[in-house]
DNA sequence: TTGATAGGCAAGCCGAAACTTGCCTATGGT
DNA sequence: ACCATAGGCAAGTTTCGGCTTGCCTATCAA
C-alpha cells in the first residue's frame, strides 16, 4: 500500500507528471507527453509515459476516467497526506510559532 | 536534494531503519543490525545496513556523530516535513480540527 | 602489545526497473 | 468505408539499485 506510493514517488519523471497534474488536472496521455517534452525537455516515448501513469495509478496517486477515445488522468493527493506522519507523529513538535 | 529523499524512502528496509530510529534515537550500526534481524526477521549483512544508512545520510534523514569507535545515528525528520507539500500546497486544506 | 570490537572500502553479482520497438484495438470524423 | 487519432500489449534491452564477499583501518581493553 504505502510501498506503492513510495516506489511511485521515487522516479523524477513521475514526480514531474504529478506537478503537471497539479497545474492542470484531467489531462490525457498525449497532453502529458507534450508537456514533458516541451516544458521540461525530456525525450521519452509515449509508452514510457503510459507506463509511468500506470505506476502512479496503482499507487492511487492518479485516477483515470474514460470518455470515448480519451482517457483523462486526475490527481489524487490523498495518499500523500499520511506518508511522512509515520515518522513525524510522536515527535516533539519543535517550535512552530 | 528532494530527489535523494524520495530515493531514500523508496526502499522498505530503509523505512524500517527510520522506524527503529524513531523508537530509539542514536543507535549504532550493530544495534540497528540486531533490531532488523530479531524484530523483523530480515537476514541482511552488516554492510547492507551500512549502505542503507549511507543513503539515508546523504538524504539528510540521518545525522551521524562519532564518539571513539562508536558512530551514533540520529534521525532528522526535517526533510520529511515539506515533501508532500509540493503537491498539497495550493489544495484546499480539508478539515483539520 | 595483542586481540576483540566497531566500522569502512571496493569490486562484483543479480534482479528489478525504465525505456524502446513493433504491432494491435478502438473511437471519431469526413 | 476509410483513415487518422488515442491508447494498449508484449517482448527485448539496458541501466541501476541492493546485496555479498573479502580485506582493511581504528579504537579500546587486558
Automatic annotation (TrEMBL), chains A, B:
Transmembrane segments: none annotated. CDD domains: HTH_ARSR. Residues 1-95 form the HTH arsR-type domain. It holds the Pfam family HTH_20. Keywords: DNA-binding, Transcription, Transcription regulation. This is Helix-turn-helix transcriptional regulator.
